[in-house]
Amino acid sequence: MEKNVAYTALFAALIAALGLVPKISLSFGVPISAQSLGIMLCGTILGARRGGQAVLLFLLLVALGMPLLSGGNGGLGSFMSASGGFLIGWPFAAFVTGFIVEKWRKGSLTLVASVASIIGGIGVLYAFGIVGMSIVLKKSLLESAALVLVFIPGDIIKAVIAGFLTASVAKARPASVLSRSSKNMA
């Protein structure tokens, strides 16, 4: 139990720390930041349930007003902004990413974690983000989807980085990759 709490807090802090990497602001209000890499790592390393919990803890702190988002933003208003759909999608993205890594046991962990990050950390996340942008910006889903095309190259790079980092952690400290834990801690 204490180990789960520690990992949840550690990965919530990792997402916050990745918010310190300077963001690149785009004209339509959704920044390019490193925090989505943290979302991917929550899933690939912690697994579905614990990864989702770490992201929910982070979002709770943001909702309470802590300036943990890229650029030092926080508060409930963040969820009503053009990037609000992405924020709401973060726990789902981490969960799906972790679920894939937990279930797909064959093959290279680097490949599995990278593909899981692309499906969960990009595909699922973009689905939420596009809907959120469509609502806030009053654009069609197609127009909103066109706006997020600029994110794809960087997010694919982050997914590959998540794959390599997950495999590196598994090699150095196999018990730390809870998504692959044989006893899958409760």
Automatic annotation (TrEMBL):
It comes from the Bacteria. Keywords: Cell membrane, Membrane, Transmembrane, Transmembrane helix, Transport. The chain crosses the membrane at residues 29-48, 55-73, 79-101, 108-133, 145-170. It is found in: Cell membrane. Gene3D superfamilies: 1.10.1760.20. One of its GO terms (cellular component) is plasma membrane. PANTHER family: BIOTIN TRANSPORTER BIOY (PTHR34295), BIOTIN TRANSPORTER BIOY-RELATED (PTHR34295:SF4). InterPro entries: BioY. One of its GO terms (molecular function) is biotin transmembrane transporter activity. It is a multi-pass membrane protein. Its main location: membrane. This is Biotin transporter. Belongs to the BioY family. It holds the Pfam family BioY.
